[in-house]
Amino acid sequence: MTPGTERTRGLVLGKFLPPHAGHLRLLRFAEQMVDDLDVIVASVASEPIGSELRVRWMKELIPGATVHALTDDLPSLPEQSPDFWPLWRTSLLRCLERPPTHVFASEGYGAELARQLGARFVPVTRPGTDDEGPIATSGTAIRRNPWEHWRHLPDVVRPHFLRRIAIAGPESVGKSTLAARLAKEFETVWVPEYARDWLTREGAPMDGETARVEPGDMVMIARGHAASQRALERSANRRLFVDTDALATTIWCEFLHGQVPEEVASIAEAEAPDLTLLLDVDVPFVPDPIRYLPEERRRFFDRYEAALQEAGRPFALIRGDFEERFRAAVDAVRAVPPPEPMP
């Protein structure tokens, strides 16, 4: 701001349902043009993505701006009410600490909105195309088919439209190998089992050649695995493959310690995989310092299958040699539908 001049304050109004690359360009342009920027997320209760989540997204996407939620029940179009503009003007000004000096928009309503608020209108043209097609798209198009417009979704938004596939089962049934192969097949990432990282860390206690597992370790394993999944969700391409899950950790607690820590149970209950690939025990056992129950694999499999049924989680049984398992897993994953179109 030049000394002696009024501090400029911009306004960007939108539904951000969801935020996409076009919004980001508009917001970053606006942020460079004014001293302060207000972003208003307008929503109604009937919309498919809630206001709270959208506001959280916007705060992360444009941290230098002040983000406001507007949840008033307002008409969507001028022809719906003769008081359309007075109603919107009143609601918008109530949200803001001070009126804007500039209004930024790439839609036709921007000029009139600026006039109603006594501000200067700054048009922002839509970007063009690149080798993959249009650089920007619309929220309507994304809601109809989020996966088709994946590249337009900011990283913070992508987990909302992600499909999560857990690969689970007893010890030594090829979970990690299958997770890695599936991630390569579907051009995405996979979450390694955190138990291995934790139990093989430097200085971890050992019982001979086997890593010792205490009840507190199970809590750390469940926490670490959940954190690993969250850390990778934004890097995933439509699908995320997860080697083991917290439900399996609860069963390990039962088998090794006879009880499940409350925190581990809570983490398992919060999981919501779209599909679990349950691997059978029809492949040879391979010893390892963090494998404990070679004679209990069938019982573990049966208990895990029962736990999946009790939790109401969709799952597919995966059997056969490693190639048969891979082909069956690919078919099961392809059968998981993408996100449903939203209005």
Automatic annotation (TrEMBL):
Gene3D superfamilies: HUPs, P-loop containing nucleotide triphosphate hydrolases. It comes from the Bacteria. Pfam families: AAA_28. One of its GO terms (molecular function) is catalytic activity. Signal peptide: none annotated. Residues 164-325 form the NadR/Ttd14 AAA domain. This is Trifunctional NAD biosynthesis/regulator protein NadR.
